[in-house]
Design goal:
This protein has 14 helices and 20 strands. The chain is α/β, with parallel strands linked by helices and 437 residues long.
Length: 437
């Protein structure tokens, strides 16, 4: 249920009666700071709607919180603790950190605690109805930016700031400048939202949106599912963005309706002032691949197809959702993966895992030769499915930095689930479009 109208040009009137229009970031942060309006560059004091802390590294803000001498957290109902990175633990230090997090959640009355196997933090936040339009969310993980898919201002903070927020419930932010990314057209078969964000990364570069709010708009948005929007928002951090956001529309409302929560959507004014503007025609997009060791070293699949690979990973907070597993299963159905590689599948959550089983996707992938991993981050940051010297992996993750998935002498290529599945069948980087006619 959206209580506010869609984007309009009804900005505030400034001096001499001139209408001043505002971006999403200016409007939302102004509201959270209880200010009539704010502009990019201003400093605001804000109270978040939710705080998300993740993984065994939760132990760090817990220790810092203890050092502050505060006995009770500011608001246990606004705190979410999730174990997803080092799961299941393979070393005693991780297991001990998990024990500490469990004990802290019980001691502080934090009911929103998700243990090993429930899923990746960013998937759970959206999937479990822990973030809504118009909210301000801080998370101790860079890809917290994902929640802009449902119209929230979501951004990352470090362990020290998280500990202080647990204690005080207040912090400050500099209001970011904004980039408008207008989407037109329609995606072709075999081309997905992952190809879109890779193209955006290649166009703007890895430092093209540093401390900026990326606002997606345009008629093509209505054709993107919440899963699509999560993929795009998730990877905007790879361009340096402070946050990324999609407009709240019928797609958002339908997704959030089961939670039965009323919310106020924040939409930018149509004539807001943007630092940069970019228009992307989805109909012109082709499958994209990011080459080692930069997320913005993006090429058309035709430029790298045929390159032999040793491993394929489909999963992560970027592309481990039901739609992603369905796209991969559709390509490998009645086929076998190449005997020269490993295909690893990581469902983004327990709910996704069960839904994929019910739909038959897991069975299809296993019959094709895939290995199914526990819900969690797994190979994305080199915790499982690590690469050896000289090995090459095509993955649906968000980062291909040197050594991220194991040996610093390995290579990581980034692509969509469809491209990954087609490549797993052929044993080399492949164009998925011939499988999706």
């Amino acid at each position: 249920m959206c209580l506010l109208p869609r984007a309009s040009s009804c900005g505030k009137r400034g001096r001499k009666g001139k209408v001043v229009a505002f971006t999403f970031a200016e409007k939302l942060l102004g509201a959270k700071a209880s200010r009539p309006h704010v502009k990019a560059g201003e400093i605001v004091r804000v109270t978040p709607d939710r705080l998300m802390s993740v993984s065994a590294s939760n132990a760090i803000p817990i220790h810092l919180f203890r050092e502050l001498g505060v006995e009770r957290v500011w608001d246990p109902d606004r705190i979410v603790l999730i174990l997803d990175h080092e799961t299941p633990p393979q070393a005693s230090d991780h297991a001990n950190s998990h024990r500490l997090v469990r004990a802290f959640a019980h001691e502080q009355g934090i009911k929103r605690f998700y243990d090993v196997g429930e899923g990746i933090c960013h998937q759970l936040m959206v999937e479990q109805g822990l973030v809504f339009p118009g909210e301000l969310i801080f998370g101790k993980d860079s890809h917290t930016i994902t929640y802009g898919a449902v119209g929230a201002f979501a951004t990352a903070i470090d362990a020290t700031e998280m500990a202080c927020l647990w204690a005080t419930g207040e912090t400050w932010l500099r209001v970011p400048r904004s980039i408008q990314v207008k989407l037109v057209g329609k995606l072709s078969p075999g081309v997905s939202s992952k190809d879109l964000i890779l193209k955006v990364a290649g166009t703007l570069s890895a430092d093209g949106a540093i401390y900026m709010s990326m606002e997606f708009s345009g008629p093509a948005v209505r054709g993107l599912s919440i899963a699509d929007r999560m993929t795009v928002a998730n990877m905007c951090i790879e361009l340096g963005a402070k946050n990324a956001v999609f407009p709240v529309d019928a797609v958002t409302d339908d997704f959030l309706k089961p939670f039965g929560v009323s919310y106020e959507a924040v939409q930018p004014d149509t004539d807001a002032n943007y630092a940069k503007a970019l228009e992307m025609d989805l109909g012109d997009l082709t499958p994209q691949v990011a080459c080692p060791h930069r997320v913005d070293d993006v090429k058309d699949v035709s430029e790298v197809q045929g390159l032999p690979i040793d491993q394929v990973f489909i999963g992560s907070c970027t592309n481990g959702r039901l739609e992603d597993l369905a796209a991969a299963a559709a390509i490998v159905e009645d086929r076998r993966i190449s005997p020269n590689l490993r295909l690893l599948i990581g469902p983004a959550s327990r709910k996704v895992y069960l839904a994929a089983m019910e739909a038959g996707h897991i069975q299809t992938l296993v019959k094709a030769g895939a290995v199914i991993l526990p819900p969690g981050c797994g190979p994305c940051f080199g915790y499982s499915g690590v690469l050896g010297d000289g090995e090459r992996c095509l993955a649906t993750i968000n980062r291909n930095f040197r050594g991220r998935m194991g040996s610093p002498n390995s290579e990581i290529y980034l692509a969509s689930p469809a491209t990954a599945a087609a490549s797993a069948v052929e044993g080399r980087i492949a164009d998925p479009r011939r499988y999706r006619q």
